[in-house]
Amino acid sequence: AMISAKKKKLSPKEWEHFEGATDEAAINGHPAAIKAKKLARLMKNQGVVSTCRYILFKERKNFWDARDACENIKWPFTHKGAWLADIHNMEENMDIRILLQVGLGIQQTESRYMRDNWVWIGLEKTKNNDYLIPKSQQGPENFKPEEWIWQDGTHPNFTHWARNMPDQSYQRGFKDYQRFVQINKKGRWDDTFGLMEAPYACN
Question: What are the Cα distances from residue 7, in Å, to 4, 130, 139?
């Protein structure tokens, strides 16, 4: 059964089992969505949605171009650059997920792998990333944080992988393995190819 935010405040755990979080009342009532809409009124650039923590750009870029775009941002007052988003808990994961839904539609767009259903974050596998791994070594239960880094050089202390991910697949067209990470509208993570173009989030 669908859960409505009008009836009940949803905990992060409840959101995870919440029919893919496609109830518009629940999503629009989430604090991240409310903040994003308030900030949107102040922004003339409709290609951006933002909270106080993250800013999501709707323009599609590959991983490296998205990373460079974030680094070229200069925040007001501090004038410091940003980087592709890092995530350390479920609340932050929810922020990214909500921004993707507010900016590019609550429902999944067309096929599952349509890039408007995904957003780049700054996690990259830097070790043991150049070969096919057997199925027995794939999936969240085999994830090794020490092989992955955020853009600031730290290892992840939180993840929210989709089932059987990461799997480090290879594609001849890209001549590369899946070693970068995107989040979908259900808040789940998937490793993918750096040349894939998708919206991106900075912090």
Answer: 5, 49, 36
DSSP annotation string for 50-117? E-SS-EEEEEEE-HHHHHHHHHT---TTT-----B----SHHHHHHHHHHHHHHH-SSPPSSTT-GGG
Q: At what angle do helices 31-40 and 90-104 cross, to 10 degrees?
A: 50
Q: 143, 124, 145, 123: which is closest to 203 by C-alpha?
A: 123
Q: How many CA atoms lie within 13 A of 34 on its CB side?
A: 5
**Beta-strand relationship, 55-61 and 48-50:** antiparallel
Alpha carbons 84 and 46: distance in angstroms, whole number: 20
**HSE-CB for 92 with a 13 A CA cutoff:** 16
| Residue 109 CB partners (closer than 8 Å, separation 6+) | 116, 117
Residues 180 and 82: their CA atoms lie apart, in Å, by: 18
pLDDT tens across 144-158, in order? 999 999 999 999 999
pLDDT of 98-108, one tens digit each?
999 988 888 77
- Cα 174 vs. chain centroid, distance in angstroms? 22
